[in-house]
């Protein structure tokens, strides 16, 4: 039986992490993220990588196992018996089933980066350096990373996890996870498909918070982070002056009305190396 196991070295890699980051273009949703702390959890079906989160599930069982499965799925008895005879003792992939659905239909993911200084991420997700990067202060318990949420956001069935969303490091490699044997492997094994990506994405230094839409009480895509979670924004090196001034003014107003302050940094393209340097500015 295969199970999902966090890599042994994860706590070693994570032990010094105090913040995670989200690159954003400038729009209404970015403002809602910063000022309302709205974390929009996407369906994996909307991701820009066709391999991302695409689980490979294999069903393998005897006649009775299949008959029970189809009957419990609401298929008429006679049809269930016919399908059970066809599938008994064979390996059947999920997309071959008449009631197939993908894991992306129910899973919700919020993606972060470990760094606020990844040049391609500024280009891809922050509108060619004209957007910004949001900084999230994380909880770090000996390498286990999470974000504090407002009360009443999640109902996971585990009280300690109703106010915290865990963020795990994405692993990169050349091989896909082995197929999940639905009736033999532990259910946790499917998380391998959500935490592994191809090597070509390694530059993103990605972390992911994963939940189910059925756990989200008030909205099927949005969770509200606790006050103080967003502690800074980094303005892109090519942000237009009018947008820069707009966000500086908005942060100034926000800080004057809230105990938890948001710092502002301007990213500057270094003239002697391929690096972006943050310089703090006063709203």
**Total helical elements:** 6
Number of domains: 2
Largest sheet: 5 strands, mixed
Percentage of residues assigned to helices: 10-25%
Give the percentage of residues in beta strands.
25-35%
Distance between the termini: 56 Å
Order of helices and strands: HEHEEHHEEHEEEEEEEEEEHEE
Structural class: alpha+beta
- Low-confidence stretches are none
Query: How many E strands?
Result: 17
Rounded radius of gyration (Å): 22 Å
Overall, the morphology is: elongated
Overall pLDDT metric: 88
What is the strand arrangement across the widest sheet?
A: 1-6-15-16-17
Brief summary:
InterPro entries: DUF2971 (IPR021352). With 283 residues, this protein is an alpha+beta fold. It has six helices and 17 strands.
Main traits of this protein?
283 residues, alpha+beta, 2 domains, 5-stranded antiparallel β-sheet, 6 helices, 21% helix
